[in-house]
Amino acid sequence: MRNTKIFSGTSNVALSKAICKKLKIDLGSLEIRRFSDGEIFVEIDESVRGRNAYVIQSTSAPVNENFMELFIIVDALRRAAANEITAVIPYFGYSRQDRKVSDRSPITAKLVSDLLIKSGIRKVIMMDLHAGQIQGFFDVPVDHLYARPIAINHFKKKFKNKDFVVGSPDAGGMERARVFAKQLNGADLVMTDKRRPGPNLAAITNVIGNVRKKNVILIDDLVDTGGTAVKSAEALIKAGAKTVSMFCTHGVLSGNAVKNIENSHIEELVITDTINNQEKLKGSKKIKVLSVADLIAEAIKRIVSNKSISKLFS
Questions:
Q1: What average pLDDT does range 250-256 have in this prediction?
Q2: Could you tell me if 90 and 58 are in contact, meaning their C-beta atoms sit under 8 angstroms apart?
Q3: Cα separation values, 93 from 31, 108, 131, 311, Å
Q4: Which among 261, 224, 227, 256 has a CA at the least distance from the CA of 245?
Q5: How many CB atoms lie within 10 A of CB 90?
């Protein structure tokens, strides 16, 4: 790690510090200021000439500001003669805009990927992308990490010697749930059938699979407004489920999401710290946060020493 420097944007400094603590290195020094008109100014406060730099920045809300901050940090490092710059993006904003949904709609995930490459990154580390094909939007190596091992450890302890099944809130997430179930001692699979009448609206129509008198663990990549989670839990309880827990890597938690979860049939929602939700979750009784700091730190360590990352998830 001698030739490695780690820097952080402002979106999730707590996670960046935790990663550096695990790696036993200091967080790199830089200044980030905003002018009165909203423009972002970045200055690297130490020499990075010839060093390999990692920039940790989740592109959560405010999404556009955090992306712009990342672009400018990378550009500053490149102009300061850093050898190789890796963007560590625990949560990748715009990941749900990964394809054209109408004839004249954009593919914004591809656009921001191109902008990242143009800014000067040479590698990317991401976690639990909404759509795996986003890796192909980058013309540089992408290491795709999964929070699954952390969640599996949690639920193995929670449901030790108890009857449980693993589920997905929609058909698109069944492969994610299937891998999760396989590593949870081959648990049975269930699914709720989801129909969206409009953006950020979810209507659950029925449950596919037997959940009667069973504890259900729903798996998804992110929770935004909480609508899907709440309606899925309601449908599962009506179908006879004993309890409903849920794991989502990314806690976007927009609007009244926390309140919606607290007032729902969900017994426990487990998220990670890919997004900084410390303020939002004050007083929450149902939402538990697991840290991905160890996982990201180990991935960085393996990249630096040219070791396999896939072994972390096998």
A1: 97
A2: yes
A3: 23, 10, 12, 27
A4: 261
A5: 31
Q: What are phi and psi of 281, to 5 degrees?
A: -95, 5
Q: Describe the chain by its helix, strand, coil percentages, rounded to 5.
A: 35, 25, 40
**Which one from 158, 162, 182, 194 is the annotated catalytic residue?**
194
CA dist 277 → 11, 12, 89 (Å): 10, 9, 16
Tokens representing 53 are: 């730099």
**pLDDT (0 to 100) of residue 1:** 81
Question: Model confidence over 52-102: pLDDT tens digits?
Answer: 999 999 999 999 999 999 999 999 999 999 999 999 999 999 999 999 999
Q: Which helix (H) or strand (E) holds 55?
A: strand 52-56
pLDDT (tens digit, 9 = 90+) per residue, 272-286? Answer: 999 999 999 999 999
Task: Check residue 170 and give its pLDDT.
Answer: 87
Beta bridge partners of residue 43, listed in sequence order:
31
194 in catalytic set: yes
Omega before 106 cis (within 30°)?
A: no
pTM metric for this prediction: 0.94
Q: What tokens does 200 get?
A: 């950020």
- In order of their start, the domains of the chain are 4-146+294-312 (3.40.50.2020), 148-291 (3.40.50.2020)
The rounded distance, in Å, linking the Cα atoms of 226 and 279 is 17
Cβ–Cβ under 8 Å, residues 218 and 237: no
Q: How far apart are CA 93 and CA 87, in angstroms?
A: 14
Residue 308 to residues 85, 126, 213, 291, Cα–Cα distance (Å)? 19, 16, 42, 22
Alpha helices, DSSP H only, in 239-310? 257-262, 293-304
